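### Sample
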Amino acid sequence: MSTLPRIAATLLALTSMTQAWAAEHTEAPRADGAATPLMVYEPAAAKGCPPLLLVSHGAGGSEQGLRYVGEAMSADGWRVLVMGHRESGLPVLKQDLRRDGFKGGITALVTDTPAYRARFLDIDAALAWSDRRCHAPYKALLGHSMGAITVVLEAGAHNKLGLAPKGDFDAYVALSPEGPGPVFPEGAWAPIRAPMLLVTGTRDQGLGGDYRWRMQAFDGLAPGCRWLAVVDGANHMNFGGGQFAAGVQKSTATLVATYLDALRAGRCGTPPDLAGVSVRQKPRD
């Protein structure tokens, strides 16, 4: 069976399961003395050290979220670590919302430079935790919403927050990416060199506008193996793991697996043909 049908069959089976995929909850020590919560999804069978996917949740989320990504990608042979970012989790978001209202509270958190510095410490802690088990042959970083901002920052985008992370990953995936605004200036994405998949939906509203605002992140990327997928009817929380979104999440997981598996095999690959999903590609270098 070829790669795409195998992935599709696996994802279809996962959507019919009534029990959660077996996952390990643990913590990884951070360089500042704090600890990063991790939800660990190990592949059922792996020959040697599996590829690694780190997952970064949105504002107010936790390591318990984005389970559909952990389940699907571990079934596809990846070790998946969903990180908990305590400095931008639900208690912090609630404080910001009470103080500044909905839009002001969200803006305050997603533009909080110390919160991103803490997220980068979480990334370092998760990488070190995985390396103690084995050194992954391929590493990718995926994030949703504030996690997508984290992904794009980590990939090397210009930003208004004075952040310059390491960019230690082979590939990046941004679910609900941000366009120009309080974090990213115009032209922010030009320095990014690593492959990147961006996914949004036609109902994916954000602080700067609708999904067309989010698409500007893709427009700003240089040529290379970059895909932009737009899922018809998908809203912001569908990508974050919200309920009643099995179709959106199945399509998203298929896109991620297809894109990353091809890269890991040394090629750019071909976007899957999914109902209600349009994919744009950048010209190759």
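The first strand starts at residue 24 and ends at 29. This sample (Alpha/beta hydrolase family protein) is used throughout the tutorial notebook.
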